[in-house]
Specification:
The protein has 167 residues and is α+β, with helices and mostly antiparallel strands. It is built from five helices and five strands, in the order ββαβββαααα. Strand 3 and strand 4 form a beta hairpin. Helix 2 crosses helix 5. The longest helix has 16 residues. The structure holds FE2/S2 (inorganic) cluster (FES) (2 copies).
Length: 167
Amino acid sequence: MVDVELVDVELRVNGAAHRVELDPRVSLLDGLREHLGLTGTKKGCNQGACGACTVLADGERIASCLALAVQYSGREITTIEGVDHPLQRAFVAADGFQCGYCTPGQVCSALGMLAEHRAGAPSAVTADLSGQDIELTDAEIKERMSGNLCRCGAYDGITTAIKEVAA
Ligand code: FES
Ligand code: FES
């Protein structure tokens, strides 16, 4: 058994700063859930394939299971516990979830995606790459949200909710 030196990490989450001593191999996802008790962020695959663990880091969406907590020391992390946005009400109104397990990741991912769209970032289905006024069609939303899986198949409701808020 190898002794691992713990490192001092500052997890800045939802506006509050927490100093924790962590094994440098601990993922941001486990840091949030197991060390800060913020269990809204879900662990699905734990290997970057499902999006359930999506959080925002300085406003950009990331898969927290693929990030080391130490890498994000001092960065501003937003988890679902820190989100208060019309998108959440739109998810309810549009039946954008069933079991709800993927929902925190869907909401955080959608907020990051909307910011990317506002900044003019194209997706793989964008025909005009000039960066001007990309229409957020269903195809655009589905492509941009394709990293977030929903095993309940609530995709139509998710797309409707995002489209409504984007409008
Ligand atoms: S738990 Fe991180 S992508 Fe699935
Ligand atoms: S609502 Fe159940 S996995 Fe998406």
